[in-house]
Amino acid sequence: MRIGEVAAGAGVSVRVLRYYEEQGLLSAQRSPSGQRHYGETAVDRVKLIQQLYAAGLSSKAVAQLLPCVDTKTSTPEVRGRLRHERERIDRQIQELLAARAELDKVIHTAENPGSGYTYVA
C-alpha cells in the first residue's frame, strides 16, 4: 500500500505516518524512486498506535510495547508496565465519571431552577 492509502484507511495524515516512521513505530519499504510502500497490516498497526496514544502512552512507551505485539510475547517488565498503564486509565475513568456526575447536577439545576443544587469549590 502507498502512504496515502494507509493514511486514508487509518484516518490519519501522511505527516503522522512519517512521524511514526521517525519514531520507529511503523516501517515501509522504499521503491527505487523512493516511494513508501507498506504491508497489508499497516492500517491496523496505525490504528493500534492511535489507540495507545489515546490511552495516554508516550511514543517511547508505545515503541517499547510494539515489539511484544509483533512477537506475541512479553516480559515481566512489559506486563508490569501494561498493568500500570491500565491502572492509570482506570483512575482517569473514575475522575471523568465524577466530573460527568457534577456536570449532570449543574445541567439539572440549570434546567430546574430552585432545585437546590449549590456548587461548592
Automatic annotation (TrEMBL):
TM spans (from-to): none
Pfam families: MerR_1 (PF13411)
The organism of origin for this protein: Kineococcus radiotolerans (strain ATCC BAA-149 / DSM 14245 / SRS30216)
Key words, A-Z: Coiled coil, DNA-binding
Domain HTH merR-type intervals: 1-68
Superkingdom classification of source: Bacteria
Name of the protein described by the UniProt record: Transcriptional regulator, MerR family
Coiled-coil region: 79-106
InterPro entries reported in the protein's UniProt record: DNA-bd_dom_put_sf, MerR-type_HTH_dom, MerR_fam
PANTHER family, per database record: MERR FAMILY REGULATORY PROTEIN (PTHR30204:SF97), REDOX-CYCLING DRUG-SENSING TRANSCRIPTIONAL ACTIVATOR SOXR (PTHR30204)
SUPFAM superfamilies referenced in this protein's UniProt entry, alphabetically: Putative DNA-binding domain (SSF46955)
Molecular function per GO: DNA binding; DNA-binding transcription factor activity
Secretion signal span: none
